[in-house]
What we know:
By secondary structure, this protein is mostly helical. The protein has helices spanning 15-24, 31-42, 52-64; strands at residues 6-8, 13-14. A hairpin with a 4-residue loop joins strand 1 (6-8) and strand 2 (13-14). Helix 1 crosses helix 2 (31-42), helix 1 (15-24) crosses helix 3 (52-64) and helix 2 crosses helix 3 (52-64). The protein binds FE2/S2 (inorganic) cluster.
Amino acid sequence: xxxxxxxxxxxxxxxxxxxxxxxxxxxxxxxxxxxxxxxxxxxxxxxxxxxxxxxxxxxxxxxxxxxxxxx
Length: 71
Ligand code: FES
């Protein structure tokens, strides 16, 4: 099941939004670069910044998981 919950309250960015943004980006091998791309696309972590670590954690988690659809 796809997780979905609000990660960034300031900008109302959900886990799914971050996932989509990450998939629409060119592949990065660097979490911080990916974070910047996701931040630009979703505006997450541009308010209070309190979600910064959460967003980073989600990106690294998504980058670690294999991109297969369990066919
Ligand atoms: S909760 Fe994301 S910037 Fe404030």
